[in-house]
Amino acid sequence: MVAAVEPKESVVACMNTLAVATACRGYIQKNSSEGK
Question: What is the distance between the alpha carbons of residues 8 and 1, in angstroms, rounded to a whole number?
């Protein structure tokens, strides 16, 4: 139950993951739209 002990760390990790996923998605969409 590490998340229960350190909720702030979990939130930061989750936000970092979301940011990376969003950046990755935007990067892929930009590349695929330019490739057409």
Answer: 13
pLDDT tens figures, 1-36:
455 566 788 888 888 999 999 998 999 899 888 755
Reference 9, options 17, 25, 21; nearest CA is 17
Q: pTM here?
A: 0.52
Other CB atoms within a 10 A radius of the CB of residue 10 amount to 13
CA distances (Å), origin 14, targets 3, 10, 28, 32, 34: 11, 6, 21, 27, 30
